[in-house]
Design a protein that fits this description.
The chain is an alpha/beta fold. It folds into three domains: 44 residues, no CATH class; 130 residues, 3-Layer(aba) Sandwich (Rossmann fold), CATH 3.40.50; 137 residues, 3-Layer(aba) Sandwich (Rossmann fold). It has 13 helices and twelve strands.
Length: 336
Amino acid sequence: MKGEQYTLKDLAKALNLSVSTVSRALRNHPDVNEATKKKVQQFAEEVEFQKNPIASGLRSHKTNAIGVIVPEIANYFFSQVIDGIQTVAYKAGYNVLICVSDESLEKEQAITRHLINSRVDGLLVALSVETNRYEHFDFVHRKNVPLILIDRVVAQVPASTITTNNYDASFEAVEYLIHKGYQRIAHIAGPKGQAITEQRLNGYLEALKKHEINIHEKLIQYGGYTQEGGETCTKTFWNLEERPDAIFAVNDRAAIGAMRFLKSIQVKIPDQVSIIGFNNNPMGEIIEPALSTIVQPQFEMGELAARLILKQINQEEYSYQHLTLPSKLTIRQSTL
């Protein structure tokens, strides 16, 4: 057996015991005498025996595994969420299976089915930007697997949700710019159709309305969550006859894209235009000038999602919870 993985049958054969006796001895069952337990456990340790988690899961109907689907793992926001999930799950004795959809609906659908067929006990998902159909989550519900949506959520999927206060935080950021005297505030919005996009856009619009500032459609551009999108939108703003004096971006990557374009044409930040991002990407502190942003509790979102999914896994019946965590406006040099 050198170099090979021992099974229960192999242990039983080597020790001249029944498979059931070996299994009970490894579980420290009281029906097995102490001498036999010690003999089995010592031999199992010597041959580095490992239980088969899939086989154990089939017997117990649990695999102690949680599936996680995120759009991209290189994104700082999602990497922090994953850290929070793993911290809680590990302490509870659960493994975390991390999968990346690459912002693709097709991949998200395939990964969802694969994880459910692999018998994960629960599923945590941040939707891709392409996700506009939700039949794959019907499959999750039919299999009675608890599901929680994180950050990117939709009303069409019955599930618990973990989000931050996108509307309030956006309102606060834009109102801060208004109090600083800015009147032509542009907004780089996220992908159309996403709840986050609408919530942050609505916070921007309501701040303008509250202070009776005219809303100009040309000062709202949908650029998505990328740096390239931020650059493209800002270039569009700068081709206007009346340019913006401040920009509020849907996230930091879009804001950094805006800054990059403005620097390329020698526009001074914040002297000529101020910029605020969203989600506190570490790059925002490194660039010059440092980027004002809205700090989201990403790690805490992951922790909360993990605690909630573990609670639902261990309850036969539960009601959906919709939890919103607060964010914080942090002012740096890009708006001073």
